[in-house]
Design goal:
Elements lengths: L1 H33 L12 H33 L1 H25 L2 H13 L3 H11 L3 H29 L2 H4 L6 H19 L17 H11 L1 H32 L3 H29 L2 H21 L5 H25 L6 H26 L4 H26 L1
């Protein structure tokens, strides 16, 4: 029992540090690239070009996460969770250290290399999910996977705040600069590796598993071609695509319709994170033990669809309440879907299927906001209608699977 508690703690810390590391570095990219504060470009580079370079710096992290998550998942199936998690943490450390070097070197190329290395080794979430599944009974899996989501949410919400804090010269004086948040992220990766050093292996591995250059694509193909996993992979793809569009566009809606300032939006996102955490800690365990996961997914998706459409139509202070409804539904859908996917594969394939979920997450959150930004040209309603359609399609997929079960 004591070993299980430390294992859950270590896996939670790994996810938290992974998310924090990404979030801490996030505030650096806008001034460094858009304002050219690190002098990476000549004065002749246009604003449109810098906007494109900024998007590339953001998306390259997700691209490499998409490509490498299935490989890291399969490696954890072959060699065990502990060693690959430590490699992921150290890879993050190295990636952010390289990114820090790009500032004094005034090199956008070095920055991209650092972002690529950090993204390629950002596999702690799918591997940690597999690690939690290793030590959890069927009844415990959903509630414990909620901790994975909690660590990711907390890191995502708090990371940018920490990054901004460590760049604040009014607090730290002249010794802090654009390198500092990258160094903080690198230090977090090193700390995560140290925590995992004392983590007792939860899965000894299967050395017969073969890994090759096309393992990522093969794992993704297997997940989407096998009937046993196809429906819920498609459901997760549609759901996360809609959620990525919705969340990335939310600040635009709050600014344009309610006149909120950046600080107000930041506080509200922190409030949403608190609601998210309370939902995962106290509500999720009870709901997932009392109701079938498939029913939870269907109900939460239709609630998400209705709230999204209403959210896009309301122009007054009721709007934030619909955001809270959306926030409540999200962990229910994600955790229930991942739990079902886990139950569809054997013990020595948990890393593989969790790696695929990591790729789906990276793809949807890398591509979704870009597509959402394009639809914004046609107005906010068009963007949220797109997100709503993605939720509705996911809901339809859940019903089709339910009919098949009956």
């Amino acid at each position: 029992m004591k070993n299980q508690k430390y294992a859950i703690f270590a896996l939670f810390v790994a996810i938290l540090i992974d998310a924090l590391g990404w979030g801490v570095a996030f505030p650096v990219l806008a001034p460094v690239i858009l304002h050219n504060s690190a002098h990476m470009f000549s004065s002749t580079v246009s604003l449109a070009s810098k906007n494109m370079l900024y998007e590339i710096a953001l998306s390259i992290y997700c691209i490499f996460m998409f490509l490498m998550s299935p490989v890291l998942g399969s490696l954890s199936d072959k060699y065990g969770r502990k060693s690959i998690l430590i490699v992921s943490m150290l890879g993050n450390c190295i990636g952010f250290f390289i990114s820090a070097l790009s500032i004094p070197m005034h090199s956008y190329t070095v920055l991209l290399i650092g972002r690529s290395v950090a993204g390629a080794t950002a596999g702690s979430i799918p591997i940690a999910q597999a690690g939690i599944i290793d030590i959890s009974s069927k009844e415990q899996t959903a509630s414990r996977l909620g901790l994975v989501v909690l660590g990711n949410v907390v890191g995502f919400a708090v990371g940018p705040v920490i990054g901004g804090f460590f760049m604040d010269q009014s607090i730290f004086g002249s010794w802090t600069n654009f390198q500092t948040p990258f160094f903080v992220s690198a230090a977090m990766g090193l700390f995560g590796a140290l925590i995992l050093f004392f983590y007792k292996e939860t899965f000894q591995g299967n050395k017969t598993i073969k890994i090759h250059a096309l393992t990522s694509f093969q794992n993704i193909y297997n997940a989407f071609s096998k009937k046993i996993t196809l429906q819920y992979c498609m459901l997760l793809l549609c759901f996360l695509f809609g959620w990525g569009i919705y969340f990335s566009t939310m600040p635009v809606l709050l600014t344009e319709r309610l006149g909120w300032t950046g600080s107000s939006i930041g506080y509200f996102i922190a409030y949403l994170g608190t609601v998210f955490a309370l939902m995962i800690l106290f509500v999720l365990p009870k709901i997932t033990t009392k109701f079938q996961l498939k029913n939870i997914i269907s109900f939460a998706l239709i609630m998400l669809f209705v709230a999204t459409i209403l959210f896009a139509s309301i122009y007054n202070s009721i709007t934030p309440w619909f955001i809270i409804i959306l926030t409540v539904a999200v962990p229910l859908i994600y955790v229930s879907t991942v739990t079902i996917l886990s139950s569809q594969v054997s013990e020595d394939k948990q890393g593989e299927i969790m790696g695929v979920t990591g790729s789906i997450f990276a793809l949807t959150w890398g591509v979704g906001p870009i597509i959402g930004a394009y639809f914004l040209r046609h107005g906010l309603y068009a963007t949220y209608a797109l997100a709503g359609c993605a939720f509705l399609l996911a809901f339809a997929i859940s019903l089709l699977h339910k009919k098949k079960d009956i």
